[in-house]
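Input structure tokens:
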């Protein structure tokens, strides 16, 4: 059984969730504003799942890294090639279609390196800015004291909480969504110490929190949706990943189809918005019904993501791994787990 196949499957679920949310909400005039907003509210929670997964995987991977530069290099190889390609296509596309409200901004370094948000050209890439800030923090911890990775990351989360409470101007590092990465780090710590136990009640609680988040943000109308999603969508995502990892350690298998979507999830996440905007901007040309337009945009996004994954993403990732593995990294996760003797290696990045 491939270790963390369940996490990969959840990546696929999260990516599909966001894609479907954007496909339904791309033309509120076609589906109705309430349906568009309500669907996007719950389906956008896939981003919260991504953040928890990222915290888990990055903490697990970083614990096996020998050098912060190797970690930073592999993160850059993972993020930038596909992002830059889609950013270029979006920049050119902005001459014909409106990718976001307002006028297109200049392509400054913040946009080029996905460091700032919101992102006018590739709207979903706002979350990549959070990812990049998290990667920088992890690389800094590796440079300071690698053998105290978890302790220093938890200390960093304490700083985030302090910044939130006292409204300190730390940019993204004082944003509540950073705590979702921390939840993933916590799951990685529990897995490393053999303390994960599967419970079906965890999954039930997770589902309840997602529903509560949808009600709080969409139905009730939260005055601060970004904060409201952390104790609801964020905590629900944390419980979901906790359950998935613990279930896999105990021998549970997961859908190969969802794993396949997990493999293309990053490319799908980055590329789908431009595809959907193109399809939604020329509905009269396609002669499709509203449902047909939504389905077509989803299928086209998946097909393009798969093509880019096979021809660009996978070869570049393979090259990056070979280049960075000039010396082996000693895994800190090679001890048998208490749950069943499984030897978890670092998950695929």
């Amino acid at each position: 059984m491939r270790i963390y196949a369940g996490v990969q499957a959840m990546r696929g679920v999260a990516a599909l969730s966001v894609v479907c949310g954007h496909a339904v909400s791309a033309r509120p005039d076609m589906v109705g504003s309430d349906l568009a907003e309500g669907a996007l509210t719950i389906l956008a929670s896939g981003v919260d799942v991504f953040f928890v997964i990222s915290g888990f995987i990055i903490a697990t991977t970083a614990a096996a890294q020998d050098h912060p530069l190797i970690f930073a290099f592999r993160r850059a190889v993972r993020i930038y090639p596909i992002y830059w390609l889609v950013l270029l296509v979006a920049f050119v596309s902005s001459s014909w279609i409106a990718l976001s409200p307002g006028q297109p901004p200049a392509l400054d370094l913040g946009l080029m390196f996905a460091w700032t948000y919101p992102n006018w050209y590739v709207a979903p890439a706002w979350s990549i800015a959070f990812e990049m800030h998290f990667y920088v923090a992890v690389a800094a911890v590796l440079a300071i004291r690698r053998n105290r990775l978890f302790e220093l990351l938890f200390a960093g989360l304490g700083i985030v909480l302090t910044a939130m409470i006292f409204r300190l101007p730390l940019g993204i590092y004082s944003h509540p969504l950073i705590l979702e990465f921390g939840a993933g780090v916590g799951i990685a710590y529990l897995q490393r110490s053999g303390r994960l136990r599967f419970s079906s009640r965890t999954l039930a609680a997770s589902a309840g929190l997602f529903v509560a988040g949808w009600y709080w943000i969409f139905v009730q109308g939260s005055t601060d949706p970004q904060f409201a999603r952390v104790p609801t969508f964020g905590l629900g995502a944390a419980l979901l990943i906790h359950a998935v990892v613990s279930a896999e350690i105990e021998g549970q298998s997961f859908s190969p189809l969802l794993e396949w979507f997990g493999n293309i999830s990053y490319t799908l996440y980055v590329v789908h918005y431009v595809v959907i905007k193109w399809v939604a901007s020329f509905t009269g040309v396609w002669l499709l019904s509203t449902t047909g337009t939504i389905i077509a945009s989803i299928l086209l996004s998946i097909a393009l993501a798969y093509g880019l994954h096979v021809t660009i993403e996978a070869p570049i990732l393979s090259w990056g791994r070979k280049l960075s593995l000039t010396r082996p990294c000693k895994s800190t996760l090679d001890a048998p787990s208490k749950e069943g003797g499984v030897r978890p290696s670092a998950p695929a990045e």
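The CA atoms of residues 48 and 293 lie 27 Å apart. DSSP finds 16 helices and no strands in the chain.
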